[in-house]
Amino acid sequence: MYIWYGLYTLGFLRDIAPKDAFNLILKAANKKYIPAMVELGLSYYTGNFTKKDKVKAKRIWDLAAKLGSNEALTRLAATNILEHKYKNINTDIELLNKASKLGSILAEVTLGSLYENGIGVKKNKSKAVMYYRASAQRGDRYAYNQLKRMYDEIRPKRFIIK
Fold first, then answer.
1. Distance between CA 25 and CA 101 in Å, rounded?
2. Mean pLDDT across the stretch 12-21?
C-alpha cells in the first residue's frame, strides 16, 4: 500500500484516483507501518490528498516518533521551530543537528533557515549557506532557491541572472 501510494505521488502510477491513493497510505499507517505514518502526517500537514490538519499531522508524527521514527522526530522539531511553537528550542535544534548528520534534508534546510535568521542560534550566514548548499546538492529545490536568493542579495545588480 505504501509503495503504491509512493508510485502514485511520484507520477509513475496514474490508474487510481487521488482519494484511493490517500486511502492506501491511510490503511498502511493504521497498520503502524512507520514510513506510511510519516507520509500520512505529511499529507495532513500540507493538505495533499486530504483536508489540511496540522494538529492531526503532529499527532501522527508523535505516535510514529514513539514507535521509533527519527524522521517523525525531525518533522516535529522542524515544525515546532518554523511555527514558533517550541517548548525548548535548544532540544529541537540539537535533534535537527543529529538528523542533519544522519543526512536529513529537512533538518539541513531548517538549520539553514535558523542560521540565516538567527532563530535560536546566533545569526551566521555562512553556516546558513553551508546547510542550504548541502541540501541543494542533493536536489532540494527549496534549498537551491534559498541559496540563490542569498547570493543574489550580495551580488551586484548588474550580475543578477534572471
1. 29
2. 87
Instruction: Supply 93's cell numbers.
Output: 535544534
In angstroms, the CA 106 to CA 147 distance is 15
Question: 18, 11, 17, 22: which is closest to 1 by C-alpha?
Answer: 22
CATH homologous superfamily, domain 87-162: Tetratricopeptide repeat domain (1.25.40.10)
Its pTM stands at: 0.82
Buried/exposed code over 57-85 (b: 16+ C-beta within 10 A; e: otherwise): bbebbbbbbeeebbbbbbbbbbbbbeeee
pLDDT tens figures, 78-112: 999 888 887 889 999 999 999 999 999 999 999 99
Which whole number is the average pLDDT over 54-67?
A: 96
